Amino acid sequence: MAKYTIDHDRPTCIGCAACEAVAPEFWVMSEDGKSDVKGSKIIKEGNEIKQELLDIEEKDYQINKDAADACPVNCIHILDEKGKRII
Length: 87
Ligand code: SF4
Prior knowledge:
- It is globular and about 30 Å long.
- It has one domain (4-79): Alpha-Beta Plaits, CATH 3.30.70.20.
- The strands form two sheets. The chain has a four-stranded antiparallel beta sheet with strand order 4-5-1-6, covered by helices on one side.
- It has two helices and six strands; from the N terminus they run E-H-E-E-E-E-H-E.
- The relative contact order is 0.32.
- By secondary structure, it is α+β, with helices and mostly antiparallel strands.
- A hairpin with a 2-residue loop joins strand 4 (41-45) and strand 5.
- Iron/sulfur cluster is lined by residues 13-19, 34-35, 70-73, 75-76.
């Protein structure tokens, strides 16, 4: 059962690949130079991906928190069960 949600503010991503280096099970670099959350729900505005959301379990929180901490532009957020931002 999902406890947290990864919330990727993709337009802000600068494509540094830190998230993929830290948590390759969840993050992958895309052809357009930005990262994607593997298997996430994609929210688009026109042709642009605005946001990627993926529910994760407690056991996967820390690795994604580490990825968020490594992101230089703070575009990786993690939401709690109520949708409140933890980071
Ligand atoms: S660490 Fe942040 S800026 Fe770098 S690729 Fe990942 S999401 Fe984008």
